[in-house]
Amino acid sequence: xxxxxxxxxxxxxxxxxxxxxxxxxxxxxxxxxxxxxxxxxxxxxxxxxxxxxxxxxxxxxxxxxxxxxxxxxxxxxxxxxxxxxxxxxxxxxxxxxxxxxxxxxxxxxxxxxxxxxxxxxxxxxxxxxxxxxxxxxxxxxxxxxxx
Length: 147
Hints:
Radius of gyration: 32 Å
Distance between the termini: 70 Å
Number of helices: 1
Order of helices and strands: EEEEEEH
Shape: flat
Structural class: mainly beta
Helix content: under 10%
Number of strands: 6
């Protein structure tokens, strides 16, 4: 019978941080919320049971979007293409004007700077997708030959 030498290594004693017991909500140290009181039968709460109203959250002001949202050079065509926000505050005076199509405002445009052509779109996502494939809408953008 073959015997094997097994050496046992003592595991270093580690200290763990004490864990707070879990509550019924599944979140530690958070007591279960008390159920909301039922509304009074008359339709309005009694004066002593008036529900406090939380103040409205402060409105966050979004930073204005720039006129040129994306500027890139297409590898497939070698053309420079921009995605424009036609409603931007910093739009130049000779900017492309927003258009309408099917009753919707077309406030974004994809512009081929190399060939001076553009196309209008309703959303930024549509204009960005079109900028990725400028050969589909710009008549003179042709894919370059890869060697």
